[in-house]
Specification:
Largest sheet: 13 strands, mixed
Helix content: 25-40%
Radius of gyration: 24 Å
Number of helices: 17
Shape: globular
Structural class: alpha/beta
Strand content: 15-25%
Length: 540
């Protein structure tokens, strides 16, 4: 009798370790099968190829997705795209895969949320280690995550046919086209797709909003702590970046075709280890160097970014409702990394700007820089020791000002509804604040809001009642927006109506232990910087 009980127990464990198949799905590429999640609440279709990359499409737009015979087993997470991270070089070039997560029992068709991951355009993936879908699919929506090329493979911009630029953004648009064409087979509504992203993923959403290549691919957008107007969102001199990268490998040329031949003959491992240290002219200039660019007009090549974002936003009217968000202490993220990299010292002596302003004279630049010092430092001397104030300026220049400016421009040029939020909550899932060494700080760091939307396997489970409440706030608001275009269709649910912003009347939902409507954050400094950017922003 005892051995029978042991056999039964071992068999029970073995059964639960075996993936339970999900429903078969047939799309144009072929038939595929996924698996059921461990809690049986949703179906997972992992690693579906949405496009392909080979030697002929390296540094270019991806090719069409492959077809297959038989049944494709979409049950394993795909490799990331090649990148060099703290544990070493990971990923491979056959990485243009996506994951589809479908509620197991609910009324179809489902609204669809497509997430574009962040990572400074240089690293990251759409994997479940960070972007687990559990919290969101419980709200009866389909969630799609995906990989796109990052670093030099995604953002080498030589402005020639062989490397026109923005391959990573073109991957993102290819993924959106795949979703639009195929999501109905999974029970999704192709006419109700919302794209959203955080940090560089948010800047990507902003760029896609203004790209003709993406017209008609989605209905709504959510932009979380990023904007195409940010000083780190566009490389204004990509050929110089490429020259410096080649120089770091021992080559000395400015010719685009020669640069292309150099990079095309390198292995992925060689490419992702290329690194340069930019000479920073201004104190708050970005040190990032793999960035999107404005493309040249090349016969036979469809560009996705045709002008500086400020010009596109002001001249391209589109009526897509957008949710824009910020965290209350964005700059903590940058101070943490800057302190570790010891980059603050090398910034000393530069004017107190980012790199996206141009003045008529050095005297004028000095005068405006002095005004910045007076606004932030009052009577105190500017010093690296004033780390909290430096954090504020980083947060304002890199995130707050660009996001609010983009919100206002959209309100002025379109019929779109614009919803703004400020995430202030500090709980056990404020992961980025913790790893940057600011556990004791109040408020939320750049990117902290992401972890109240996703249930990543690398993060601890939900422990506290307050964290669970904020997860419910976030996932309900986001999925209501995706379903209805209104984050609070029933104001009684949370005791607040999220009012949309209007021209000359920005309104913010403040997300903390409770939800409440509030004013624009740091309004005085926002007006100050808006006037400066209206007058001195580089537009060409």
């Amino acid at each position: 009798m005892k051995w029978r009980k042991k056999v039964f127990f071992i068999t029970f464990i073995a059964i639960n370790l075996v993936d339970e198949p999900a429903l078969e799905v047939t799309i144009e590429q072929g038939t595929l099968i996924g698996k059921t999640s461990s809690d049986r609440s949703y179906f997972e279709y992992l690693g579906i190829p949405y496009a392909n990359v080979n030697s002929s499409t390296r540094f270019r737009a991806p090719g069409p997705p492959p077809f297959w015979e038989g049944t494709y087993r979409a049950v394993e997470e795909p490799p990331s795209c090649p990148q060099n991270i703290f544990i070493g070089i990971i990923g491979n070039e056959d990485c243009l895969r996506l994951n589809v997560y479908v509620p197991a029992s609910a009324k179809q068709p489902f609204p669809v949320l497509v997430y574009i991951h962040g990572g400074a355009f240089n690293f990251g993936s759409g994997g479940k280690n960070i972007y687990g879908p559990n919290f969101l699919v419980q709200k009866e929506v389909i969630v799609v995550t995906f990989n796109y090329r990052v670093g030099i493979l995604g953002f080498l911009c030589l402005r020639i046919k062989e490397a026109p630029g923005n391959a990573g953004i073109k991957d993102q648009i290819a993924a959106l086209k795949w979703v639009k064409e195929n999501i109905a087979a999974f029970g999704g509504d192709p006419d109700n797709i919302t794209i959203f992203g955080g940090s560089s993923g948010a800047a990507s959403v902003s760029l896609i909003l203004n790209s003709k290549s993406a017209t008609g691919l989605f209905k709504r957008a959510i932009i979380q702590s990023g904007s195409s107007l940010a000083p780190w969102a566009i490389d204004r001199n990509p050929l110089e970046t490429a020259r410096l990268l080649a120089q770091s490998a021992g080559y000395n040329t400015e010719d685009p075709m020669e640069l292309y031949r150099i990079f095309s003959n390198m292995t992925n491992q060689e490419l992702v280890t290329l690194h340069i240290k930019k000479k920073l002219q201004n104190f708050f200039e970005t040190s990032l160097f793999y960035l999107p660019c404005v493309e040249s007009n090349i016969p036979g090549v469809e560009p996705v970014i045709t002008d500086m974002p400020i010009n596109l936003i002001k001249t391209k009217p589109y009526n897509i409702d957008v949710m824009y968000g910020l965290t209350s202490k964005e700059g903590l993220f940058l101070i943490g990394s800057e302190t570790i990299d010891s980059n603050l010292e090398q910034r000393k002596g530069g004017s107190l700007f980012a790199g996206d302003l141009q003045f008529h004279s050095e005297d004028e630049e000095f005068m405006i820089s002095k005004q910045v010092k007076n606004i932030y430092f009052d009577e105190k001397d500017f010093s690296i020791k004033e780390i909290a104030t430096i954090s504020d300026i980083f947060g304002h220049l890199y995130f707050d000002i660009p996001v609010i400016l983009e919100s206002e421009y959209l309100l002025n040029t379109s019929q779109s509804k614009v919803f703004n939020y400020l995430f202030k909550y500090s709980g056990q899932r404020n992961f980025l604040k913790f790893i940057n060494g600011f556990i004791g700080e109040t408020g939320a760091c750049h990117g902290d809001d992401i972890f109240y939307l996703f249930h990543g396997s690398l993060l601890p489970p939900l422990f506290t009642k307050e964290d669970k409440k904020v997860v419910n706030f976030m996932t309900t608001l986001w999925t209501n927006f995706a379903k209805h275009g209104n984050p609070t269709p029933d104001p009684k649910e949370f005791g607040v109506k999220w009012e949309s912003s209007k021209k000359d009347n920005m309104k913010f939902l403040h997300i903390d232990h409770e939800l409440k409507m509030g004013s624009i954050p740091n309004e005085k400094t926002y007006r100050f910087w808006r006037d400066i950017y209206d007058k001195y922003r580089i537009k060409h």
